[in-house]
Design brief:
alpha/beta, 8 helices, globular
Length: 256
């Protein structure tokens, strides 16, 4: 496979989740060094790190709480020491709570926004500051959602947090464009990953029904999301910034 990212270091939050793993594998296959962060214990990463290193690249993991700015800073400090300054930054970590507006506790609301929005800000602010200090170009991709623009009953905090991520992407893109740092968002629709995948795995008929609601008649796999992220970060992509790549199979064209 073409090693087009052979000189790059990719920083991925939520790196042990379904999408995080798919992104790491895709970049590793293209020659990039991989720096994973996640809230899970380091032992959870051992097998996956071995798999990544099978591509002949360097891969490391650090337990990180993206909702804590100090934890994020320590993580990126360690990555710089071990692999160098990350120049591809994938803000992927997220959580979701199911419930109506009046079922949410203040703690649940705050926690979801801290992880999904504050975490994305802490990570990208810290990592891009290092690029600026070293006058390095780079790429930032926020893993957003079509929920940023479409109301999802039962997911109020998730929708609000992803809408915030979309505007953060635009603000950061404008500020960093003169420095050669391009910032974009990938906004998937219904992905067979995380909470959705666990629900659909236990209820195949529900998954089939969901797929039939999508105009293209299929759900999105984590590998498809990863492929689009790699395309956004391709070295020949030099003008796209502040954009949202919507990959929802046409869901946003419907009134659900």
């Amino acid at each position: 496979m073409d090693k087009i990212f052979g000189t790059k270091t990719v920083l991925i939050s939520g790196g042990l989740g379904d999408i995080g793993r798919a992104v790491a594998l895709k970049f590793a296959a293209s020659g990039a060094a991989i720096a994973l962060g996640d809230i899970k214990e380091p032992t959870s990463a051992k097998g996956f790190l071995t798999e990544l290193r099978g591509f002949g690249i360097e891969a490391i993991y650090h337990q990180t709480d993206v909702s804590n700015a100090a934890s994020v800073s320590s993580w990126i400090d360690a990555v710089e020491q071990e692999l160098g300054t990350p120049d591809i930054i994938i803000a992927n970590a997220a959580t979701v709570t199911i419930g109506s507006i009046h079922e949410f506790t203040p703690e649940q609301w705050s926690q979801e926004l801290r992880v999904n929005l504050d975490g994305a800000f802490f990570m990208t602010q810290n990592a891009t500051a290092r690029l600026l200090a070293k006058q390095m170009p780079g790429r930032v991709v926020f893993v957003g959602s079509w929920a940023a623009q479409a109301v999802h009953p039962g997911l109020p905090a998730y929708c609000v947090s992803k809408a915030g991520v979309r505007m953060l992407c635009k603000c950061m893109a404008l500020e960093l464009a003169p420095h050669g740092i391009l910032v974009n968002e990938i906004a998937p629709g219904w992905v067979e990953a995380g909470l959705s995948a666990s629900i659909w795995k236990g209820n195949p008929e529900q998954a089939k029904t969901a797929a039939q609601k999508v105009p293209v008649r299929k759900l999105i796999g984590p590998q498809e999301v990863a492929a689009q992220i790699v395309l956004i970060c391709h070295p020949e992509n030099v003008h796209m910034t502040g954009s949202t790549v919507l990959m929802d199979g046409g869901l946003s064209l419907l009134t659900l």
